[in-house]
Amino acid sequence: MVRIAEELPARDELLDLYGAVGWSVYTRDPERLERALAGSDLVATARDDDGRLVGLVRTVGDGVSICYLQDLLVHPGSQRGGIGRALVEHVRDRAAAGVLLVLTTDAGGTEDGHRSHPFYRALGFAPHGEQGLAAFSLRV
């Protein structure tokens, strides 16, 4: 059984989890990762019975009209056990009525995209195009 809590994990735990899922862009600069989490609206963790960090979700937004699921990670050894769903449901339960939950994930042509798209659809998310929306981004 996992326990969901709002907390900022220790640096070594963050690096272990982000590294385990292959998000090396985050692990290259631990200070930046810590600042990103500290500046988030919500950071919720999932810990197993031994207290080991097995999942994390973090959001950014205005708390009124939009909530962006910035990161959702579940340790590979703990995936497909409901942890990701529990973390997203925690965010959804904490969001104000009428808030738009938004996320960006890998494209369908990637291995991760093929796995994650059905997961997000099962939680009620729909691609922007199906909602008459388009997404744009600019890396600076």
Describe this entry's structure for a reader.
Keywords: Acyltransferase, Transferase. Pfam families: Acetyltransf_7. This is N-acetyltransferase. The structure is a single chain. The protein has helices spanning 11-20, 24-27, 30-38, 83-94, 111-122; strands at 3-6, 42-47, 53-61, 66-74, 100-103. The chain has a single domain, classed as Gcn5-related N-acetyltransferase (GNAT) (Aminopeptidase). The protein has 140 residues and is an alpha+beta fold. Strands 1-2-3-4-5 form a five-stranded mixed sheet, with helices on both faces. It starts with a strand and ends in an 18-residue tail after the last helix.
Indicate the radius of gyration in whole angstroms: 15 Å
Q: What is the fold named in CATH at topology level?
A: Aminopeptidase
Integer count of domains: 1
Q: Could you report the average pLDDT, rounded to the nearest whole number?
A: 90
Q: What is the H/E order?
A: EHHHEEEHEH
What strand line-up does the widest sheet have? 1-2-3-4-5
Kindly estimate the percentage of residues that lie in beta strands according to DSSP: 15-25%
**What gap, in angstroms, lies between the N and C termini?**
41 Å
Please report the total strand number as a whole number.
Answer: 5
- CATH architecture assignment: 3-Layer(aba) Sandwich
Give me the CATH superfamily.
Gcn5-related N-acetyltransferase (GNAT)
Structural class: alpha+beta
Organism: Clavibacter michiganensis
Protein name: N-acetyltransferase
GO molecular function: N-acetyltransferase activity
Keywords: Acyltransferase, Transferase
